[in-house]
């Protein structure tokens, strides 16, 4: 519906129609259409803010470890979203088996985890990683950390999904190129360059 608002009476008529709940040709009231559009814009802005927060948190972790920053990749974020959506019914922290590096995190509803907190939790695994031996401390995890700082990784994309039946939230981040090759250090660029050229 296009409306020319060149005359003051046109503005009044438009305002009257807007406030009176006048219906469009499709049978949807103009206020409902505006609410739907506003909801879509708000959701888009929320996702953009969340994306910036995930990227910023990753790049702080990388710079702190002496690695170059990552770029946000919408394709990776879409892959992460699609995988998180598949896990929505059960909220299981199961890896997708896709072509990217992948970090997964789960938390309950009663404690809100921001993107920064999630990435910080993964980054705290650095205390479980021995750089000299390129190993994790016995019975401890460090693979989330090593994926975040993997030197040849250049892009990240993440998604957060609310699971069904109050099971909490699932966070999935995808990394490209992937890291965590067995026996290789995340900081050894010469080994990684050899893998790329092979």
UniProtKB/TrEMBL annotation:
Gene3D superfamilies: CAP. Coiled coil: none annotated. Residues 1-27 form the signal peptide. Residues 49-183 form the SCP domain. Pfam families: CAP. It comes from the Eukaryota. PROSITE patterns: CRISP_1. Keywords: Pathogenesis-related protein, Plant defense, Signal. InterPro entries: Allrgn_V5/Tpx1_CS, CAP_dom, CAP_sf, CRISP-related, V5_allergen-like. Probably involved in the defense reaction of plants against pathogens. This is Pathogenesis-related protein 1. It comes from Cardamine amara subsp. amara.
């Amino acid at each position: 519906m296009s409306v020319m608002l060149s005359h003051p009476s046109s503005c009044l008529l438009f305002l009257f129609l807007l406030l009176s709940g006048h219906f469009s040709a499709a049978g949807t009231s103009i206020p409902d259409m505006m609410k739907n559009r506003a909801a879509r814009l708000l959701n888009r802005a929320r996702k953009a803010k969340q994306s910036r927060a995930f990227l910023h948190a990753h790049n702080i972790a990388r710079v702190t470890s002496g690695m170059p920053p990552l770029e946000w990749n919408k394709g990776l974020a879409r892959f992460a979203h699609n995988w998180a959506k598949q896990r929505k019914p059960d909220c299981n922290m199961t890896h997708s088996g896709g072509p990217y590096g992948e970090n997964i995190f789960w938390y309950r509803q009663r404690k809100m985890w921001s993107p920064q907190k999630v990435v910080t939790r993964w980054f705290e695994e650095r205390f479980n990683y021995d750089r000299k031996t390129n190993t994790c401390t016995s019975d401890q995890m460090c693979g989330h950390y090593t994926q975040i700082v993997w030197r040849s990784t250049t892009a990240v994309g993440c998604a957060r999904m609310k699971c069904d039946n109050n099971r909490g939230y699932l966070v999935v981040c995808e990394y490209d190129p992937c890291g965590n090759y067995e026996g290789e250090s995340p900081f050894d660029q010469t080994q990684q360059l050899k893998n790329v050229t092979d």
